[in-house]
Amino acid sequence: MDKEQILSALTKAKDVSPKRNFRQSFDLIINLTGIDLKKQEHQVDAFITLPHQRGKKAKVCALVGPELEGQAKQVCDSAITSDSFEKYKEKKEVKKIANSFDYFIAQANIMPKVATAFGRVFGPRGKMPNPKSGGVVPPNANLKPLYEKLQRTIRVTNKSAPLLQCGIGTEDMKTEELVDNALTVYNSVLHVLPNEKHNIKDIYIKLTMGRPIRIGEKIEVAKEAK
Predict the structure, then answer these.
(1) CB count in 10 Å sphere of residue 112
(2) Both 157 and 168 in a single domain?
(3) What 3-state class would DSSP assign to 30?
(4) What are the pLDDT digits (tens) for 75-116?
(5) What is the rounded distance in angstroms from the CA atom of residue 179 to the CA atom of residue 8?
(6) Residue 216, by phi and psi: left (phi above 0), alpha (psi -120 to 50) or beta?
(7) Is the dihedral of CA 205, 208, 210, 211 positive or negative?
């Protein structure tokens, strides 16, 4: 997959998709082959930092102790301090928090408290602060670079099906930025697949309400991405 192929697919995806009264996102869909999801080494769970913004703001909540409280309230979209964790005893309250934010970051020395208070809901939803994304930080961390990085970070997993699907931007972004983001995802995925490109069956690009377009030398409209 190269830049010209991605560019052609993006152009075709726009051409065959009617205009909507909302800003649509572009999704990249990578169908996999030769993957056994029962094998741990075949399971993909990766955070990828894109070269450009995702087109939509990622909401970040910090779970912190007193050391990072002031900074977290200035930098992040919300901050919950460890002395207030007890307010979230009700599962519905924790669900409300989980639904309100894209990423959670946490101060490393209070992670046991974070797990106790939020783990039962955050864990199954993949919302727990994750070291892979840089989301578990020391008490003296500088949160601003992390917050800015998370604005360009996506997570790709194949836990439920032999495919990877993620957003690479929105239709109002520059085409060159969408191409760069798509190529970054592709190259990153190659490195985490057991047999690299041999595990990739085909790749599609689609708008939120549009039809999938297969990336390749011969661009064609697909009925669905299998």
Answers:
(1) 9
(2) yes
(3) strand
(4) 999 999 999 999 998 999 999 999 999 999 999 999 999 999
(5) 10
(6) left
(7) positive
Q: In sequence order, which residues have a C-beta less than 8 Å from that of residue 45 and are 6 or more positions away?
A: 132, 155, 156, 157, 159
Given a contact cutoff of 8 angstroms between Cβ atoms, the answer to whether 24 and 170 are in contact is yes
69 in the same domain as 41: no
Residue 50 is assigned to a structural domain of this protein = yes
Q: Quote the crossing angle between the two packed helices 111-125 and 91-100, to the nearest 10°.
A: 80
- What are 50's two structure tokens? 């894109």
List the structure tokens of 60: 């970040």
Tokens encoding 200 = 């990739």
Domain that holds residue 49: 3-55+152-214
pLDDT tens for 179-192 read 999 999 999 999 99
